[in-house]
Structure formats: structure tokens, C-alpha cells
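Late entry, NDP complex.
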Amino acid sequence: LDLERVGVHDSVETVFPPEELATYLAAPSFEAAVIGDDGIGGCDAVVTLEHRDAFLECEWVHSIQAGVDRFPFDAFSAHDVVLTNSTGIHDRTVGETVAGYLLAFSRRLHDHVANQRDRRWGRPDWDEAFTLPGKTACVVGTGTLGSGIADVLGALGVRVTGVRRSSEPVPGFEEIYPTGELLEAISDAEFVIVTVPLTDETRGLFDAAAFDAMRDDAYFVNVARGGVVDQDTLVEALESGTLAGAALDVFEDEPLPEESPLWGMDEVIVTPHCAAFTRDYFRDVGDIVRENVDRLESGESLYNRVV
Ligand code: NDP
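Prediction complete; structure with ligand written out below:
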């Protein structure tokens, strides 16, 4: 592939200004330009958030997200289009966001923010606040996100266990369970945190059996994809008190519809799919793209190649 023009598709502007990345990528050997849908045709490669069918005419597409479940893999391979993703950059950002959720629940910070809005001096009940050391978090998915979460929670004294397809150990996790033992793995954790990619295997992984297996005082955290969870069943578990609460960054439908009961629940924190946001995001993505441009030039195989 002889790279002459790289397009930064304007859909990335949900996460950062496209111009920042185009400027960061600028190199003597190729042109980097911000493009809309009408500019896709002139590009050899495109960096994007969303999918467009016109990308199938390009040679290489880079997703600024780790999750690539919205891209049609079969069409990419049929058209010989390479797809790469941004796995590997979200460890610290998502780790800190998840630690923030856990600290909010344990130190009751979400209550204080809600009270402040109403100018209400409302202290927690004597037995509501707690501390994190010695609590167990089971992280389902032990890749970049899972490991970043284990790092930050480990530093807060949380005991972290993990679930992955194999039971090979992963640094930062005290114990690893294979996916087949999910229910056992989550049964005694005070926090269950989901970080698996959305695939045919993980769609609906968190169903009634999973929520039944969890402790009644456990908090559920989803920073993966909405489709990994049966959302109606989650709402039922929250309403009936068989779960203590949830922190959710991703949903079946995004934006989360205004009529969703999740918005109004005291023990639910809703964040708008931004657990990985950072003002450095364009640099982190840019570094992956640059690495792959170098690899293309030297004929090496691409980093983070998905298709
Ligand atoms: P990685 O590829 O680094 O990690 C994925 C992990 O999931 C691996 O440890 C893998 O372990 C495990 N896994 C895959 N399938 C299964 C399964 N069936 N059962 C149990 N474990 C499984 O990806 P990332 O950590 O970078 O990202 C994970 C997902 O998180 C993304 O696909 C994306 O959807 C989401 N994401 C969300 C963000 C947000 O803003 N909320 C930001 C970034 C990512 P093994 O191979 O051993 O099975």
C-alpha cells in the first residue's frame, strides 16, 4: 500500500476535534486531511469513529475505538480492506473512571452531588458509607481495560479477580476463572465489572442467571458494550433490590432514551459512553496510526489488526 492521503473522518469529533489528529499525523510522506462523507473516495486510509460503506473502497480503516462491533468484518475481508482498532490505550482512563464509580458508591459521593443540586444538607445513614480495602471486584475481561482497572483498584486495596476465555494468570489479578465459571466467579464479589468486547459469544452474557448469582449488596459496572447485558433484566434486578446498584457507561440504545428508568435510580450512575475520554485521546490514537504507517513502509504486519 502506497499511502498518499489519510482522511480523518469527521465522525471522530464526538471524541476530539478532527483537526487536532490531522495536524498530529502530518508527515512529509503523505497528506492527512479532515474529511466528511463526500471526501472518503480520495483517501487510501481513513481514521474514524463510525462506519461508512464508502470505506470499502479504501485500503485501510483505523477505528479510534477498541470496540469494532459496528464494522462489517465480512465486507471488509471481501473487499480486501484492512481494519485496525485502538485497543491498548484505554487502561488508565477507564481504570480511573471505574475507580471513581466505586469511590462514589463507597463514599456516597453521588448522593452528595444529587443533594447539592437541591441545596439539601443530607448525610448518609450510619451504615451506608464504607471503604474499599478488602472488598472484591470481579473483572470480566482481562485485556487492556480489565488490566487498567485491576491496577487502579489494586492500589486502592481492592482484591481483584478476573474472568477470561482461558484460565491463564494475568498480572494484577489474584485469581482467574474461565468464562464457563462466570457464575461462580461473580458470586462473592462486591463489585462486578464488565470489560469484554461485544461478540457472538458475549452478547447477553449478563442475563437473569448472572444477576441472580450476584450478591444482593453487589454493584454492577458496565464499561464494555450495552449488548453484553440484558438491560431489561438489569433494570428488574435494580428495581427489586437483588442488586445494590450499577454504574453504566454503555447501553443497548445510545444515547440512553430519556424515558429509561435507569436515569432516575438513586443507586445508578449513568455516564454517556465517555469512560475513556481524555484530552490526550487524539495523541494516543495518532501514535497507533503512526506506528502502523511506519510498519506499512517497512512491510511489517500491522499492529492491532482486526481484519
Ligand atoms: P482487549 O482485547 O485488550 O481485551 C478483551 C478481553 O476480553 C481479553 O482479556 C479477552 O480475554 C476477554 N474476552 C473476550 N471474549 C471473552 C469471553 N467470551 N469471555 C470472557 N472474556 C473474554 O480489549 P480492550 O480491553 O481494549 O477493550 C474491551 C472492550 O471494551 C472493547 O471491545 C470495547 O467494546 C470496550 N471499550 C469501551 C470503552 C468505553 O469508553 N466505555 C473504551 C474502550 C473499550 P481472552 O482473550 O483471554 O479471552
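DSSP finds nine helices and twelve strands in the chain. Will revisit in the morning.
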